Task: structure prediction
Amino acid sequence: MATKSAIEWTEMTWNPVSGCTKISQGCKNCYAARMALRLEAMGSPRYANGFQVTTHEDLIDTPKKWRKPRTIFVNSMSDLFHDQISDSFIKRVFETMRDCPQHTFQVLTKRSERLAKLGSSLDWPPNVWMGVSVERADVMRRIADLVKVPAKVRFLSCEPLIGPLENIPLNGIHWVIVGGESGPGARPMKSSWAESIQLQCREAGVPFFFKQWGGVRKHKTGRTLNGSIFNEMPPSPNVGIWNHELVQIGRVAHT
Result:
């Protein structure tokens, strides 16, 4: 439940919770749901409940065992702010993140209302990055909830991008990720949608990361947007997997 990740903007995944439920159109072709059912069929004890929300008490302290600094995506197989997860469990996850200042933790949720409600009661160490998913315009309200929390880095994951996002309120946002949907039934992403977001980020001085075009065979569609690969990241003393020269706001990284 803690593994190296192929996700381009992180190094590791840590899943003290698994399982989730769908709440918006971005969830329609959820990769985590497909993976959970596959793991259940393989007899994985962590997924004996399939994709039902399940907390894993024995995994809460896992990051404390890693001495080398790592960038860690928290709950790639769930949503930490799901209503079936207790406030006390969420706070324990935050305590672990606070106790591991050598790591950078990236938390992403679609349940921004609960995030905003709990935000003032959580300890926000500088190594915790908090993000919300914004897959199309009808969920842009999540951004207003995100900016209420005192995270040092607040980010948007516009993935799967399934509609245009114009006039994004980027004040108080430190990073934007854009990506198309991948896997079976992937919905197409128009190039104009991604280009618009990249331009908005450039004008606002917000780092922009283009993850993928997606599609059924995402390895064939690649990561190039208008001839460039955008690997921009928010400045952080703990991020060790990117050259800090490529983290400068507004710069495009060619790899």
